[in-house]
Amino acid sequence: RFLVEGQVDPFSLVADELCHIALNVSLPGSIPDAAANAFSALRTRHQRVAEITEMIHVASLLHDDVLDDANTRRGVPSLNYCMGNKLSVLAGDFLLSRACVSLASLENTEVVTLISTVVEHLVTGEIMQMSSTSEQRCSMDQYMKKTFYKTASLIANSCKAIALLADQETEVAVSAYNYGRNLGLAFQLIDDILDFTGSSASLGKGSLSDIHHGIITAPILFAIEEFPQLQEVINCGFDNPANVDLALDYLGKSRGIQRATELAIEHANLAASAIDSLPHSEDDTVIISRQALVELTHIVITRAK
Ligand code: FPP
Ligand code: MG
Ligand code: MG
Q1: Per-residue pLDDT for 2 more than 70?
Q2: Is residue 119 lining ligand 1, measured as CB closer than 6 Å?
Q3: Does any ligand 1 atom lie closer than 6 A to the CB of residue 122?
Q4: What is the mean pLDDT of residues 177-182?
Q5: What family is this protein classified in (predicted)?
Q6: Would you call 76 helix, strand, or coil by DSSP?
Q7: What is the residue-wise DSSP string for 171-215?
Q8: Measured in angstroms, how far is the CA atom of residue 67 from the centroid of ligand 3?
Q9: Which pTM does this prediction carry?
């Protein structure tokens, strides 16, 4: 009950469901009933992918809140805060185990490999974030790689899995993947901006959790390009609150927030283009679900929390 009411973010569930309709799958079957049955079976399998994605996502957030020592998740007290770290880790493990069983039941080796690799990516992303050298922490290339692993891989590969299960052509699977990849990158870029600004546009209104944990994100990386001396501040670490203030001063004087926002918009636009590149369809339901997928790209970049 706690997970359902408090922690579940239905974002990927919605995206997977919409992908199912957007692909406009036509299944073979000379008898209408047989085609309808095949369609309904595919829909069930697609819903399973959405559930697996959501379970992996929530499992990763439960573990993330332990690693980040977070008190809240989506505005409510986090599970680790209410019940302690031990139970949170086990709750994440439980969801991950359920996701594995559900994934195996799809009996599709390619999809199993794809989604299992996502779990590896989530861990890789977290490790990159916590154990990089100062040079790596200040590299935009490294930041984008880490962002793909920790956020975008899950949605990219689950969208691709939807296409694979529907036996779609490679180009369609690539478009589905590119949609998820770019949506995920845009989402995390905005998340990293909101850590500085919160719901208002002013600097310092966010939780500033990343910088306090020494995590260097896109706004600061862009600010370093304008003020290379900021790198020195970063190298000194953020245990001293004066260093946080200094870094925020440089960020405020720079175009860091603006350039990070522009990068997020660029990825949101690439996600929308991936939907536009899907094979043409006159079907109203398909058109509406594709519009909704494009609408998601706007929601991601205009969200304030
Ligand atoms: C949120 O990032 C965290 C992630 C997107 C991934 C976390 C992954 C792990 C903890 C690896 C373990 C994975 C599994 C499958 C159990 P954030 O802390 O930047 O964002 P937040 O503001 O949502 O906390
Ligand atoms: Mg966190
Ligand atoms: Mg984290």
Answers
A1: no
A2: yes
A3: yes
A4: 97
A5: Belongs to the phytoene/squalene synthase family. Belongs to the FPP/GGPP synthase family.
A6: strand
A7: HHHHHHHHHHHHHHHHHHHHHHHHHHHTTSSSTT-S--HHHHTT-
A8: 7
A9: 0.90
